[in-house]
Design a protein that fits this description.
single chain; alpha/beta; Quinone Oxidoreductase, Chain A, domain 1; Rossmann fold; 7-stranded mixed sheet; 6-stranded parallel sheet; 15 strands; globular
Length: about 325
């Protein structure tokens, strides 16, 4: 089968199109003939072996796929961990879900890693209360665009997005944000307070790290919650307990992997997400679509913040 594989860690150049044997499912796994694979920012970390989970070589990237189960012929979306950038992938049966008629591949993929993340950022980590203000960092991205739309469903009173270009900020407003500000770190905290009508904000959903993280903390109100779910800048932050106490701040980390062995957390959230898609309340933002052989360029564009919404690889055109 055709697959994108890397035999060393490094930049996008390590991603190579190769022919490899079709994987064999282990006990409790299913084999899926892949039609579309999802791309996530975490894939760029995995390529460098700089993510939370250590990677092993050789590596076929890709943690989510849509395709057809070889044993039943059912169309499914699955969380496969690794191996998604390929014509066939294996996935735990417990993390393989039917895709309803009328739901396209990109929408189904948007609901798993990014949809589940956006859901749990609001519901599990920030525990947004009615009327609270919520900042969504990188609101035009795959997770951010869903987090903006889910804000109202979880009771947010005012949703503020950050984005790097005027076009992306306009998109955030179209998605339902009440305000959208320049994402540049310098002066970001002041812009967030201004966008919240002069008041500090209650919740920040943050995935950049570094200076952006620090600036967002300055904008956080007493009893405010910062949820960190990414380090796109590759710049880690350190916290001092005294600083947290002085403002009664909470900083919460989130990694979706910790929900995957808790079926209720996945099943309930996915059910809610697909219900909102069917009702039209949630409209996943489709991003760029690349053929499998252009996985290298897809990661370059994703890492360079040149994409919006859900980015996918077409495996079976």
């Amino acid at each position: 089968m055709r697959a994108i594989q890397q035999t060393e860690f490094g930049g996008p150049e390590v991603l190579q199109l190769v022919d490899v044997p079709t994987p064999e499912p282990a006990d409790g796994e299913v084999l899926i003939k892949v039609t579309t694979a999802g791309l996530n920012f975490a894939d760029t970390h995995a390529r460098e072996d700089s993510y939370l989970a250590k990677q092993t070589l050789p590596l076929i990237p890709g943690s989510e796929v849509v395709g057809v189960r070889e044993d039943t012929g059912q169309r499914v979306v699955a969380l496969c961990g690794t191996g998604g950038y390929a014509e066939y992938a294996t996935a735990p049966e417990s993390l393989t879900f039917p895709v309803a008629d009328g739901v396209d591949d990109a929408t189904a993929l948007a609901m798993v890693i990014q949809g589940l993340t956006a859901w749990h950022l609001h519901a599990t980590c920030a525990r947004v209360r009615p009327g609270e203000s919520v900042v969504v960092v990188s609101g035009a991205g795959g997770t951010g665009s869903l987090a903006i739309q889910l804000g109202r469903a979880f009771g947010a009173g005012r949703v503020i997005a950050t984005a790097s270009t005027p076009e992306k900020r306009e998109l955030c407003l179209e998605l339902g944000a009440d305000a959208a500000v320049d994402a540049h770190p310098e002066g970001l905290g002041e812009r967030l307070v201004e966008a919240n009508l002069g008041e500090r904000v209650d919740v920040v959903l943050e995935m950049a790290g570094g200076k952006v993280f620090e600036e967002c903390l300055t904008a956080l109100a007493p009893f405010g919650r910062m949820v960190a779910y990414g380090i796109a800048s590759r710049e880690q932050n350190e916290l001092r307990t005294g600083a947290l106490m002085r403002r009664s701040h909470a900083v919460v980390g989130f990694w979706l992997n910790h929900t995957l062995d808790r079926p209720a957390m996945v099943d309930e959230a996915l059910h809610g997400l697909f219900e909102k898609v069917r009702s039209g309340e949630l409209k996943p933002l489709r991003g760029a679509s690349y053929p499998l052989e252009e996985a290298r360029q897809a990661q370059i564009d994703l890492g360079g913040r040149r994409t919006t919404g859900k980015v996918v690889l077409r495996v079976a055109d």
